[in-house]
Structure formats: structure tokens, C-alpha cells
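Exercise 3.2. Students should predict the tertiary structure of the chain below and write it as C-alpha cells, then compare their answer with the key that follows.

Predict this chain's 3D structure.
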Amino acid sequence: MVTTYEAANIRQTPWSTSKKQGSYPADYTVLGICWADGGPISDNGVVRNDIWVSTGVENGVHSFFISAIYLKGDSLGGMPVGAQCP
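Answer key:
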């Protein structure tokens, strides 16, 4: 499980330019399936983080990504190191 610490956009792929699939409100807990390297984000005093967490699957592909910069926890958004998306 991962928890947002502020409202966060949900993206189709791990890039801020990909299709927006919605958003999660602050303090929202959702199942984190895996994490992936993607487009870097700089916000909230963090200079750069390129880790994104998938919270769903669409057409058999990991999707519904949230930048880890908006998740509580470490640079992986609280996900285990071994949970990288295939």
C-alpha cells in the first residue's frame, strides 16, 4: 500500500506528459503494484525523483502511475526495492 501526502495526478505511463487518468486526494491509500523509472519530477523541495508507482493495470499493462515524489515514505514511495515493474 502507498499513501499520498498531497493530491497527485494519475498517469497512463511513468511520465508527466502521458495521458492523465485522474487524481488521488491527499492522504489517500491505494495498492502499489510495482515501481518504474520514468520522467523526472522536481517539486516540494525535492530536486529530482524519476520513480513512479503503478496502482493498476489497463489492457494487461501496468498503468495508473503516481510519481513517488507525492507519496509518503522514501524515494520509492514506500515500495520495496524488489518490486520494480517488469
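Discussion points: The chain has a mean pLDDT of 94. The chain has no helices and seven strands.
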